[in-house]
Please model this.
Amino acid sequence: MNLDKSTLLEAYRQLKTIREFEMRMRLENEAGQVPGFIHLYCGQEAVAVGACMQLEDKDFVGSTHRGHGHCIAKGCDVGDMLLEIFCKQGGLCNGKGGSMHIVDMNKGMLGANAIVGAAPPIAVGAALTAKTLKTGGVAMAFIGDGASNQGTVFEALNLASVLNLPMIFLYEHNGYGEFTGADYHVGGGDIVGRAKSFGMPGEKVDGTDFFAVYEAVGKAVERARNGGGPSAVEAHAMRFFGHFEGDPQLYRAKDEVKKLRENADPIKKFIARVTESGQVTMEELTAIDSEVLAMLDEKVAAAKAAPEPPPEALYTDVYINY
Amino acid sequence: MSIKTMRDAINEALRQEMQRDPTVIIIGEDVVGGRGGSSGAEEASGGAFGVHAGLIQEFGRERVIDTPITESAIMGAAGGAALTGLRPVAELMFVDFVGVCLDQIMNQIAKFRYMFGGMAKTPVTIRTTIGAGFGAGPQHSQALYGIFTSIPGLKCVLPSNAYDAKGLLAQAIRDDDPVVVFEHKMMYTDECEVPDEPYLIPFGQARVSREGDQVTIVAFSRMVSLANQVADKMAQDGISVEVIDPRTTSPLDEDGILDSVEKTGRLVVVDESNPYCSMASEIASLAVCEAYDYLRAPVVKVTAPHTPVPATPALEQAYIPTTTQIETAVNTVLGIDSPKAATG
Model:
């Protein structure tokens, strides 16, 4: 696969933005600055970026509790995301959603979702809208290996298949559902095979390889746009941190993450590929690194300094008219 | 204006709203019926209770969508479609089936707007059926509107007659918030005058079904007609009973109910649901908290017992509140031991 230089640089900027965003969130969380739970996406960046770079604003994404990466890749404003994670006025949900509910309808982000397996039926509804209103759009649901066992996911697969909807089921196999290994919790062991049994194509890819994800999702999106119906992709990429920040990760071997960082870091792999091919120089990537870090410095500071929602906001937006 | 059944009134509302707004779709199980199968029938059911009859011929399969038996996906897809530009009318064939899709209703549809800080709207209507009387047993006969009413973000509608059913459903479809419409399955053939043209009934406005000044009965859904029967009968004995039909439990017309209670000083609540954490409890609580000084007698609740709905008609009839129970309750709040004493 050959992508032009500007696409590669944009992909790198997104990968790096997600990585550094999450590392910053980790520090802020440790410092007690973040309300509630956060679930970090480090190690899985190539899945979100590879998948969402195949989408447009008119396309919809249903996300998960581990949604920061999906939101960034789908085009949510990083500053507005930070306001939301710090639960401030002006955040993408005006502070009422927090980390697990970041939404941006203008960007087709249907929301991170704190209920495991809840997003696929909602994304199917967005695909139904695209088909009914003939927008040319598609919908995609991110589904963890843990969520792959939820009945809602099977129902969504079946309904998308029966109604021949423009839908992509993107399984993100990160090795664990909370504190339990996928080698235990996935009956039969073949997640994408479950999707294929509903009559749709399905492909397993290395989720730490941006190019593999980009290519597989590209095929699925093209098929959906052309009226071919739903597809599934199972991308494997282990997370570098716990289920949530604070998780002691007693279920992982001591050297597992160390090895992942050495051998399965999607950003290292991306850098190696694009610099070895000569398309991009390290200097160009380093310049992006500096820009990303400076941007985060500025936006984190702004978000922390932003005002809390006013007390009366407790009562607004339950209904439009009541 | 003509006499129509509640089934036909609902059908008319759906048809007129679909004609008016091309983003209105119907989605659910066997809302048409006949997909697949060997007969080739275009329409095999028109809905489990026949309310969609003929809609497929006018609006086609793109807008009247039969799904598999898949309540979570129906509710989720309706919510997602509503977020993204459609105005779905999703059918939950029996309210009892909420057990397999409550997450999509309670945690998703009801919360989207608030959880997203007002950045989204979810104009979905969920039509469902409630009520005992068919001998359909514990999992097809419940009156679970109290559960939904307790969830912020949902509006809850309980038509008690064909006229209200049409106007309330049209309002539900045009409403930008999620609305659950509870249709009593024993009432689809109930008839009354229903205008042919479209009309809307606003939410949160109780209807005074019978005017009176000695006792207020607040009743819901099918219980309104029972309360009316009691009011009419007792009127012959010189007892003046007011029947209030809230029509929506969320929003609830608290002022309308309190006005009546303040006028009569006596309250009977009739609710086909189980008694605990019910609308009956809610209305009794409202009266005690907001109109205590006006009450001349303790509030009496007439509800189903705290049991599942039995299948056997003998027991089912004992489960459903009766006109006799309601009449006794009215006498109780009046301090009358027997109906005869009322005329004395």
